[in-house]
Amino acid sequence: MTNPIFLALDMPQIDAAKVMAEKVKAHVGGFKLGLEFFCAHGHHGVREIAQVGLPIFLDLKLHDIPNTVAGAMQSIHTLEPSIVTVHASGGRAMMEDAKAAAGDGCKVVAVTMLTSLSERDLKRMGLTSSVEDQVLRLAELAHTAGLDGIVCSGHEVKAVHSQWKDGFFVVPGLRPAGSAVGDQKRVVTPRQARDDGAGMLVIGRPISRADDPVEAARAIEATL
Length: 224
Ligand SMILES: O=c1ccn([C@@H]2O[C@H](COP(=O)(O)O)[C@@H](O)[C@H]2O)c(=O)[nH]1
What we know:
- The chain has an eight-stranded parallel beta barrel with strand order 1-2-3-4-5-6-7-8, surrounded by four helices.
- The mean pLDDT is 97.
- It is built from ten helices and eight strands.
- The protein has helices spanning 14-24, 35-50, 66-76, 92-102, 119-124, 131-144, 157-163, 190-195, 205-208, 213-223; strands at 5-8, 30-33, 56-62, 83-87, 107-111, 149-151, 168-171, 200-203.
- Helix 1 (14-24) packs across helix 2 (35-50) and helix 3 runs parallel beside helix 4 (92-102).
- Strand 2 (30-33), helix 2 (35-50) and strand 3 form a beta-alpha-beta unit.
- The chain is globular.
- It has 224 residues and is an alpha/beta fold.
- It has a single domain (5-223), classed as Aldolase class I (TIM Barrel), CATH 3.20.20.70.
- Helix content is 43%, strand content 16%.
- Pathway: Pyrimidine metabolism; UMP biosynthesis via de novo pathway; UMP from orotate: step 2/2.
- Substrate binds at residues 10, 32, 59-68, 115, 175, 184, 204-205.
């Protein structure tokens, strides 16, 4: 089994990110580079981390009109990410154009409902359905648009998996038992997410902010 853990390198310093990546590379399957890192270091930064030798997940959460998102996908093509995110709420046409622009060898997955949101947050946005129904609805839209899968929390992944059998499901908001939750609201353990159908486990602070990141990554890997 390939290691499903992707370490989120959410840090603005490229040297620190590279040191962290080198340290933990034996215990993770790849690295996730998001807005904090990409806004600071762009293409150069992605190439630096790619040199460590593991797959790169570019978590840019693209969300704009179809033409703009397709252009952004083409602009990151040369970086050869193994997976890129767009927001499902950008709509079907946007997701279709993103997938077409991504080309072969790059999975495109849609963020459904951020793991930092709760049912209460949905209501504040005027959405009256449950979190699970909202995630299932957006997953169906992403499936229809031809995407490879979605990003959701471990609370919904089982239901999504039973609705979309061959989908690829990325699950962040993961916390080993007893670790600090921080700003995440819908959390489960890495093992629970994997058992429920997650294909990729995105983990940041429980590893990157641990006193001993190598031991933290090793311990999580051992639970899977
Ligand atoms: O719904 C989402 C989508 C993406 N993320 C990203 O995952 C990591 C989680 O980091 P932790 O430190 O383990 O909380 C982070 O990079 C987010 O941008 C998410 O958390 N939820």
